[in-house]
């Protein structure tokens, strides 16, 4: 790791507060020195913040694709009996409903977090914003993972069925339905991976200041 | 938040490195001052680390309970036909198998992480350990959530069935099976909440040093 480079970091407001509290007489020259010297790892932090912003854009694309693909999935089979038509829609299955709601919330959250991510590009040492982002990212990671995993369990069942519980595989009839649902699940797992990366990167950025 | 108290934090090794790099002539008195004064927020950090350790113990209990409850679930109905007996076991359903594996892995990881958590009680400012813990906790949060959510989707189906996919509710027959499976799912969600808390607390602990 780059802890060697980080060891020379100086956080200006903190140094000032610390110096005021402890050694007021030598406070002024220290502050002057730190202000004159550019941050040694500001570039590294800025790179991390820019990557964070780009990852958020990718995650918006992934969650939006997942939510809309799942939310518009609807297949009516071309044959029907006297009493009912065979139709499969995402809102027949509560797990798919939850998936749409969870990925839509994640997508909205990501859009709202973009300005905060932008601020941390220009102020790489603002710890409050980083902390806010890492906490809400953790919650959203859990939400997106829950949506993706529950939908996966149902998609697996739709593909393979389960003989012991007497649940039949419906994908033999509803091929298009199963295909788009599987696509949505894959997109949501991409979003899960991105959320994990976002949390880890925020942790790295919080490490030194 | 306690940012007012944190603003006076001084990290001894970093202050020394920083002082050496920037202003060697006034480095010695500063280090002497900081060494004489105890850490203002060392107690707060230590409390956080102790709470982290206790939460890990609770999470071990929750994941162990979830894994063993699910892993020993097996119900044979008291009636049978000529050809087969009605039996429900967790390993009939892949989602339940995944649940057992995921919670068992989380449980093992938590046991392995205890020594690291202990070290960070005695050395609240060791950032490398915190960073290691937050990154692996994030991965485990995703794993445990995935296991819990996929099992929930199947448990919901077992309780309610799904008319459009023609999947019947099996809980009317397998009442004991469904009860213990539901208990395991609840325990795993407790573990998920604890993992989220662990990640957030590590983020807080990384914030200032």
Write up this protein:
2 copies of one chain form a homodimer. By secondary structure, chain A is mainly alpha-helical. Chain A folds into 2 domains: 1-40, no CATH class; 41-207, no CATH class. The first copy, chain A, contains 7 helices and 2 strands. Chain A has a two-stranded antiparallel sheet with strand order 1-2. Chain A is elongated and about 70 Å long. Mean pLDDT of chain A is 80; it is low at 1-36. At the A-B interface, helix 2, helix 3, strand 2, helix 6 and helix 7 of A face helix 2, helix 3, strand 2, helix 6 and helix 7 of B.
Please report the number of helical segments of chain A: 7
Radius of gyration of chain A: 25 Å
The ordered string of helix (H) and strand (E) elements of chain A is: HHHHEEHHH
- What is the β-strand count of chain A? 2
The fraction of residues assigned to DSSP E strands of chain A is 5-15%
CA(first)-CA(last) distance of chain A = 15 Å
> How many domain regions of chain A?
2
Low-confidence stretches of chain A: 1-36
What's the helical proportion of residues of chain A? over 70%
Q: In which order are the strands of the major sheet of chain A placed?
A: 1-2
Shape designation of chain A:
elongated
Assembly state: homodimer
Please state the structural category of chain A. Answer: mainly alpha
Q: Main beta sheet of chain A: strand number and arrangement? A: 2 strands, antiparallel
Mean pLDDT of chain A: 80
Could you tell me which chain pair has the largest interface and how many residues each side has?
A-B, 68 and 66 residues
Main location (chains A, B): membrane
Extracellular side (chains A, B): 68-95, 159-183
Keywords (chains A, B): Cell membrane, Cell wall biogenesis/degradation, Membrane, Transmembrane, Transmembrane helix
Transmembrane segments (chains A, B): 47-67, 96-116, 138-158, 184-204
């Amino acid at each position: 790791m780059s802890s060697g480079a980080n060891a020379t970091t100086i956080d200006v407001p903190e140094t000032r507060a610390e110096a005021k509290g402890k050694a007021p007489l030598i406070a002024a020259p220290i502050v002057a020195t730190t202000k004159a010297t550019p941050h040694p790892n500001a570039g590294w932090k800025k790179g991390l913040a820019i990557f964070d912003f780009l990852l958020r854009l990718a995650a918006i694309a992934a969650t939006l694709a997942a939510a809309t693909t799942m939310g518009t999935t609807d297949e009516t089979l071309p044959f029907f009996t006297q009493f009912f038509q065979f139709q499969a829609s995402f809102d027949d299955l509560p797990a798919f409903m939850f998936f749409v709601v969870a990925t839509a919330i994640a997508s909205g959250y990501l859009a709202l977090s973009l300005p905060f991510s932008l601020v941390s590009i220009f102020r790489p040492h603002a710890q409050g914003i980083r902390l806010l982002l890492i906490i809400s990212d953790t919650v959203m990671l859990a939400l997106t993972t829950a949506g993706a995993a529950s939908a996966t369990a149902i998609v697996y069942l739709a593909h393979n069925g389960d003989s012991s519980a007497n649940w039949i595989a419906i994908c033999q009839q509803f091929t298009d339905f199963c295909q788009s649902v599987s696509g949505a699940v894959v997109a949501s797992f991409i979003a899960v991976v991105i959320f994990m990366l976002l949390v880890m990167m925020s942790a790295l950025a919080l490490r030194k200041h």
